[in-house]
Amino acid sequence: MTNQIAAIEHAKEKAVDLGMTYGPKVMVAIIIVLAGYFAARWFAGVVDRWLAKLELEPPVKQLILRLVRLVVMVLFLLIALTNLEIQLLPLIAGLGVAGAGVAFAMQGVLGNLFAGLTIIFTRPFRVGEYVSMVGVEGRVEAIELFSTYLSHPDRSRIVVPNRKIVGEILHNFGKIRQLDVVVGVAYSTDLNLALSTIHSLMEKNPRVLKDPAPIVRVSVLADSSVNIAIKPWVPVTEFAVAASEINQAVLEQFRTHQISIPFPQREIRILNEQGVSAAVGIAAQKQ
Questions:
Q1: Domain co-membership, 148 together with 214
Q2: Looking at residue 285, what is its pLDDT?
Q3: 212-215: long-range contacts (C-beta < 8 A, 24 or more apart)?
Q4: One domain for residues 143 and 73
Q5: What would the mean pLDDT of 250-278 be, rounded to a whole number?
Q6: What pLDDT score was predicted for residue 34?
Q7: Are residue 152 and residue 185 in the same domain, yes or no?
Q8: Which residues have a Cβ under 8 Å from the Cβ of 164 and sit 6 or more positions away?
C-alpha cells in the first residue's frame, strides 16, 4: 500500500514537472496555430482580391487560394513545432515514409487529383459549357480537384471522376448547340415557298440565335419526299424546348400554306402469269 501511494505521489510530481516545463510551450504552440489559421484566411482574402483582377477560371482561382492557405498553415505549424523543441528532420522522414504508403493505397484518389490539375490548367472545357464525354453529357456546373459535376437536361446531376476524363474523347459543344431538324415535302411543292416559310419561323423564334445564322437547305432527295434540313443554333439550356417548338411551328405553317408533308410511299406492280412468261421469252430471245 505504501509503495502504491509513493508511486502515485511520484507520478503527480512528474506531471507537475512536465506541466511546468512544457505547459507554457504548449499554450504558445496553440496560440501560434490559431494565429496561423487567421493569418491564412486573411492572406487568402488578399490574394482573392488580387486574383479577381486577373479574371481567372473559378477552378484555377480556387486551387491557388487553397494552396495559399495550406502554405501559410504549414509555416505556422513548423514554427509551433520548433517552439515545442521537436526535431523536424526525423518527423519529415517519418512523414515521407508514411506518405509513400498512403500514396500507394490511394492511387485512384491521386489519379483523380493529377487529372483534375490537368483539366484545370489545360482547360479543355469550362464551367457553363455543354460537353459529352465517357458516355454521358451535360452542362458543366463545377470543376474540382477530384471530380467534375455536370447537370443533365432531365435535372439530374452527374459526377465524373477526373481520371475518367483525361485521355478520353471529349465533345465540347460550348454554350450553344446546333439543332438538326429534318422535314420532308412533296416533290410537287414550291421549294422557294417552303424554304422562305422556314426562314420566317427561324426569325420569329426567340430561342434561335441570329449569329451564327440558321442553316436551312435541301439535304436529300428521298424516295417519297424532298428532305429539308433545319439547323439553327440555340443556347444549351434551350435545346430540347427549341426543337419541340420548331417542329410544331413547321407543321402548323405548312398546313397554313398547304405545303404537303408526304407519307412514305411504295409503288408495287403485280404481273400475271402470261405477262411473266412473255417477259421471260423476250429475255431468252435477246440472249
A1: no
A2: 47
A3: none
A4: no
A5: 77
A6: 86
A7: no
A8: 134
CATH code of the domain covering residue 221: 3.30.70.100
Residues 197 and 243 placed together within one structural domain of the fold: yes
170 and 191 share one domain: no
Asked whether 160 and 144 are in contact (CB, 8 A), the reply is no
- The answer to whether position 263 is within a domain reads no
Which residue range is the domain that position 79 belongs to?
2-86
In a domain, 212, yes or no: yes
Let me know: does 183 contact 237? Beta carbons within 8 Å: no
pLDDT, tens only, 55-103:
666 767 777 788 888 888 888 887 777 776 666 566 566 556 555 555 5
Identify the top-confidence range among 39-48, 64-73, 150-159, 196-205. Answer: 196-205
CATH number at residue 165: 2.30.30.60
* Integer Cα distance of 250 and 198 in angstroms: 7
The listed range with the strongest mean pLDDT (19-33, 68-82, 192-206) is: 192-206
| Count: domains in the chain | 3
Q: Does residue 180 sit within a domain? A: yes
Q: Is residue 78 part of a domain?
A: yes
Q: Provide Rg for the chain, Cα atoms.
A: 37
CA distances 262 to 158, 197, 222, 245, Å, are 41, 17, 11, 21
